[in-house]
C-alpha cells in the first residue's frame, strides 16, 4: 500500500494533469475528432452603410429579405437578412445625431426589428408589439444618445403559429 504523503499527492496530481493534457492533444489532432468542422477564418464583417443626410437627419434604408447562403461548400441554406441574404450592414451613427431608419419588409410575413441596448424612446424601439406587415415600411426616428458602442439587431419573424420567433442577426455601430 502506498503511503499518503504530500509528495505522493503532488506527484500524482502532476502525472494526472500531464496524462489528460497529452490525451486531449492526441484526441484533437485526430481527423475523426474534427469531422465536419468548418475551417476557421476571420469572421465576415458586414459592409458599412453610411446612410444619407436629409434636412439634418441621417437616413438609412434597410430591406428585410429572404435568400440562400452557403455556409459549407456544396450546401445552400435558407436564410433571412437585412439588405442581403444573411446578417445585415453595419450602420455608422454619431452621438447626438438625429437618425431615421426606413425598414421595408420583403420577407413574405410580418416581422420586426429591435434596437438592443440603445437609449431611445420605447415607441421607436421595435419588438413584437411593433410588427412590420409584409411589404410594409416602418420608419423609427430618434436621436443617438450614447457613446461609442456596437450592438446586434435581431430580425424576428411573426411565424404561422402566432408569435413564434426566429432570431436572425443584423448589425449596427456608431461612434
Describe the protein.
By secondary structure, this protein is mainly beta. The chain has one helix spanning 6-29; strands at residues 48-49, 52-54, 57-72, 75-82, 90-93, 98-106, 111-113, 137-138, 141-143, 149-157, 167-174. It is elongated. It has 2 domains: 1-37; 48-174, Sandwich (Immunoglobulin-like), CATH 2.60.40.420. Strands 2, 3, 4, 6, 8 and 9 form a 6-stranded mixed beta sheet that branches.
Offer a concise description of the structure:
With 175 residues, this protein is mostly beta strands.
How does the SSE layout of this entry go?
Elements: H1 6-29, E1 48-49, E2 52-54, E3 57-72, E4 75-82, E5 90-93, E6 98-106, E7 111-113, E8 137-138, E9 141-143, E10 149-157, E11 167-174
Parallel strand pairs: 1-5, 3-6, 5-11
Antiparallel strand pairs: 2-3, 3-4, 6-8, 6-9, 7-10, 10-11
Amino acid at each position: 500500500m502506498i503511503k499518503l504523503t504530500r509528495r505522493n499527492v503532488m506527484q500524482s496530481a502532476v502525472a494526472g494533469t500531464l496524462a489528460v493534457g497529452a490525451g486531449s492533444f492526441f484526441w484533437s489532432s485526430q481527423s475523426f475528432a474534427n469531422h465536419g468542422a468548418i475551417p476557421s477564418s476571420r469572421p465576415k464583417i458586414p459592409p458599412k452603410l453610411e446612410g444619407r443626410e436629409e434636412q439634418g437627419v441621417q437616413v438609412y434604408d434597410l430591406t428585410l429579405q429572404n435568400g440562400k447562403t452557403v455556409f459549407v461548400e456544396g450546401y445552400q441554406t435558407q436564410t433571412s437578412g437585412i439588405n442581403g441574404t444573411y446578417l445585415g450592414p453595419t450602420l455608422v451613427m454619431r452621438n447626438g445625431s438625429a437618425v431615421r431608419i426606413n425598414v421595408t419588409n420583403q420577407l413574405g410575413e410580418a416581422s420586426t426589428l429591435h434596437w438592443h441596448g440603445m437609449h431611445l424612446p420605447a415607441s421607436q424601439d421595435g419588438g413584437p408589439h411593433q410588427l412590420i406587415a409584409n411589404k410594409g415600411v416602418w420608419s423609427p426616428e430618434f436621436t443617438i444618445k450614447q457613446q461609442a458602442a456596437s450592438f446586434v439587431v435581431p430580425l424576428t419573424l411573426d411565424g404561422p403559429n402566432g408569435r413564434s420567433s426566429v432570431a436572425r442577426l443584423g448589425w449596427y455601430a456608431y461612434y
